[in-house]
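Hi L., both proteins are below.
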Amino acid sequence: MKNLFAYSVAAATIALPARAQTMGSDPAGSSPIIAALQWVQGTLLGNLATAAAVIAVASVGFMMLTGRIEWRRGLTVVVGCFIIFGAVGIVQGLRTFASGMH
């Protein structure tokens, strides 16, 4: 119950400022920053990152099956991969939710 409250407070904190920041275009001079962030996003979600995540999940899964690692710790690796690769969808969902709160 304590974690649910913390997550709901975090979601509300993230969603509220998004309403005030809705703009039609990017601010002047932000194109180098946006380009750098797109490069980071491409690097984090590219082929190399996907291969590394597959290897990590496979090795952690094997360690969980053989009893070398706790199930709880192994599941955090899997959930972390889902969050990293689903970050774009999560942010779009939060922005859609926040824009609907007019």
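That was the first. Here is the second:
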Amino acid sequence: MPTCRALGQGLWEVRSTLRSNRIARVIFGIVRNEMVLLHGFIKKTQKTPAEDLALARQRLKEIEA
């Protein structure tokens, strides 16, 4: 998998592997030509949890308004 990938609806994900084989994700968006970090979390399941995506989408809408 690439280090960074599109999640759709203006969201992108950066992947990182931490010590002890833990996996972290940071979700970001681009607003007015600037990268805005919206949400970061330690990944515990294979699929990105829907509530993490919803939180990032909500924050992106607030910033874009």
